[in-house]
Recover the amino acids of this structure.
């Protein structure tokens, strides 16, 4: 008998490209291995948005930011992302406070190493006054609330 394990590659439609209303439904950190730009593993933050555009089954698309080093320096990628969003961070900032916050996000597509297309939140801007805020749908389960693997 063979010990061959078949892995089913899930297919999905990425969120459409463009500017869209969004709400933060999660912020989590993940350890990334050492690589080309870092000699040691690094903890990085990822911001997860639920956007107003819906999938065919009626659920909202989920997009996430690129992984950010945990630096609030004005020239860091996280500092620039938060600044464009109109968020003043100072020297300390609780990323958890972003959950439930509204934004306009620019969704861009990128191709993964296996050829699949992913949708990323490339930019966040302040939510316009007078526009009804987006509420989380309740379909997304936060990373910290998921069962351990």
């Amino acid at each position: 008998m063979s010990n061959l394990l078949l892995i089913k590659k899930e297919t999905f439609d990425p969120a459409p490209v463009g500017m869209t209303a969004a709400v933060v439904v999660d912020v989590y950190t993940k350890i990334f291995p050492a690589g080309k730009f870092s000699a040691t593993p690094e903890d990085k933050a990822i911001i997860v948005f639920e956007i107003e555009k819906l999938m065919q089954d009626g659920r909202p698309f989920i997009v996430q930011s690129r992984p950010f080093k945990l630096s609030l320096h004005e020239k860091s990628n996280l500092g620039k992302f938060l600044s464009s969003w109109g968020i003043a961070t100072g020297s300390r900032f609780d990323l958890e406070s972003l959950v439930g916050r509204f934004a306009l996000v620019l969704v861009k597509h990128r191709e993964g190493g296996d050829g699949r297309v992913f949708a990323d939140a490339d930019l966040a801007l302040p939510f316009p006054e007078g526009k009804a805020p987006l509420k989380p749908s309740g379909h997304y389960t936060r990373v910290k609330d998921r069962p351990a693997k």
User: Anything to note?
Assistant: The chain has a mean pLDDT of 87. The beta strands are 18-32, 42-54, 60-64, 68-69, 102-111, 117-125.
